[in-house]
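This part of the workshop introduces the protein records we will be handling. An example says more than a description, so a record of this kind follows:
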Amino acid sequence: MPQVWTPDELRSITGGRWLRPLRGQSIQPRGWRIDSRTIEPGDVFLAFPGRNVDGHNFLDDAARRGAGLAIVERPVAPASDPANGMGVLHVDSTQDALTAIAGQWRTRLDPRPIRIIAVTGSNGKTTQRNLIDGVLASAKSGRQAQGSFNNHLGVPLTLLLAQPEDDYLVVELGMNHPGEIAALAGWVRPHIGVITSIGSAHLGLMGSLDAIAREKSSLLDHLAPHPETGHALALLPRSQRRPWVGRTYPQWLVTETTPQPFNFQSTAEGTSVVIDEAPFEAALHGDFIADYIWNAWRIGRELGLETAKIAEAVRAIRPMAMRMEIRRIPWKNGHVEMILDCYNASPDSMRKALALLATRGDHDLEPGGGDGADRRVTGRRIAVLGDMLELEAFSEREHIELGRLAAEAKLDILITVGQASRATGHHAAACARKLGRRLAAEHHRTLDEHVPGGILDRLSAGDRILIKGSRGMKLERLATAMEARSAALGRTEADQPKSGTRSSPRGHMDVEGESCFTS
């Protein structure tokens, strides 16, 4: 059952009209693109009228790159060169057309053995999704969402990635307004649903943690039984806010809560945990990773994988860029350890990142001198924290609370960046004084071109530095500057761990239209 669409089907599904018909009797898209720069021959180009860039201005570019079809919502003139036969379908809304086509494709997948897995949660969605994909890909055919495609654009594009021969598809569901999870889950109708956590991300948009919990749990209302097993599976977090408790579910819905991890250990290399009497070791850091490993194991078992095979797959997975990513940067006569976790930030993820920084330093040894003895690293703990966005009315309260956590995290230096983070720095310094601890705190309104250099001037070999803030703060610029300074110091980076195994490039895709992800 290849993904083939006839002109009549596309017109009927979208309610559109043809400005230029397809050259052939049908189209079998290689891909569905919202950025003309990514088009390959045979792709479909969806022209979105974006806030900054209008995709309708790039139809000629799409045609030159070999697009077989363009879907537009403005009655523009077709591309001037018809040589490649690019059809042009005019619809009322490109977004509605994309959603309708993806929904039809999801219906066509129903009789197939493919397992559709949806992941949502306040934190850790993409890490969890990547773990699941890494486990299943070790023995099955399938794919996961590209980048962080998890909103009204990214989810239908992910559904259209699924191929008839696939064993699985892992979809990520994000949100930034009430009702979004229910809408996205209604399009996906997953056979397996995972809620990673219930936390304070988007607290300002949702108003309360209970509202966030209800929003995330709406995923359960849209799970669908798989035709082969006859049941759907929901994996739920150990949260104090559990609106799914006491609800009545159909008999085919199996719900399981992530258990307390057995023999959990945090090591210099990552995380160790015992599941099904087997040791699991992951090069991933954070006290929440054990839960994510268990979820991936449970889904692997659901699809028939043996525990030993799953453990082997978990060992091969590497951290994703800018998500609790630990890098050892050559620096002068040693190394600086950088914890780069600036893809997003919320009060919960800030707490976890600070906890990780506070526990680092008990494992690492630097090679010794001529006597052959190793020496323990005793460098400083430094945190560069940017604003937590989308907290709205709760912003001041949460940034002040973050200051208390920073004061208790054994920091030597705290550097805050952004308007809201000023309160974090002030409160951290005050709390540190009350605790009888010395904490050097400084604040920068923005991370302009001069700030990174000043921060890097303070670093010494053996230091550990956490870089964390919301995506909009773009604190990864400090990591880039740090690596450039390391290279300028003339040190090799050959021993730096690589990240991103089996991962698409991460980051906000600025396209001729809209962003494909939310948090």
